[in-house]
């Protein structure tokens, strides 16, 4: 049975302090001695994926929505192994982005079932350099779908304007929207992943998330293919 986690301000603050301590402990070792944790996939995300430290990497979220963050709940529920892997990943991202993105590019191999990489299964986009480097990975691996979700709506919009809405077709950055009343900044109508609150009805033109990224990758639809997607709130 899945452990039920109720996030309070105290729980989140304790989690954030713990994660910062774990990240700093990893940073005491040379970055060359640290291990980047890239998952091979599971029933829900059956392709290569990676995660950073939720809350720590979320400039748009900490103090605003972290007490309702699904991914922080995941980290708290799953315990030390998940938190330690996320912290070690965050330490590598912080200290050596060249190594971080080279590892991601190396993980995009033709030997995997799905030619795809889900970036930041947990954690957040931190700046335009990160988006530029993801776009470059997509350029270097044109037969792979690279996609990610972000609540850094103004950052993504600014980046899209600066690139002339002309990034690689196999790179799909998605706006993460939490309820129909979530006031995200999306004047370019970039693709959204919408989490519906109880009682809300999806807008026209949004496809329902099947809960299995493999279905969308098999059928050429959904998040990896720049479509608006919705799901219902879950614990």
Spatial strand sequence of the major β-sheet: 1-2-3-4-5-6-8-7
Summarize the biggest pleated sheet.
Answer: 8 strands, mixed
What radius of gyration results from the CA coordinates?
A: 17 Å
Number of helices: 7
Note the beta-strand portion: 5-15%
N-to-C span: 13 Å
Helix residue percentage: 25-40%
How much is the average pLDDT? 92
Give the beta-strand count. 8
Low-pLDDT runs: none
- Give the overall form: globular
Class inferred from helices and paired strands: alpha/beta
Helix-strand sequence: HEEHHHEHEHEEEHE
Descriptive account of the structure:
This protein has helices at 9-27, 70-78, 80-95, 97-107, 128-140, 153-162, 213-219, and strands spanning 38-39, 48-50, 116-119, 145-150, 171-178, 192-196, 207-208, 229-232. The radius of gyration is 17 Å and the shape is globular. The mean pLDDT is 92. It has 235 residues and is α/β, with parallel strands linked by helices. Strand 1 and strand 2 (48-50) form a beta hairpin. It has a domain at 9-168. Strands 1-2-3-4-5-6-8-7 form an eight-stranded mixed sheet.
Fold topology:
Layout: H1 9-27, E1 38-39, E2 48-50, H2 70-78, H3 80-95, H4 97-107, E3 116-119, H5 128-140, E4 145-150, H6 153-162, E5 171-178, E6 192-196, E7 207-208, H7 213-219, E8 229-232
Helix pairs in contact: 1-3, 3-4, 4-5
Summary tags:
eight-stranded mixed sheet, alpha/beta, 14% strand, 235 residues, single chain
Can you describe this structure in just a few lines?
With 235 residues, the chain is of the alpha/beta class.
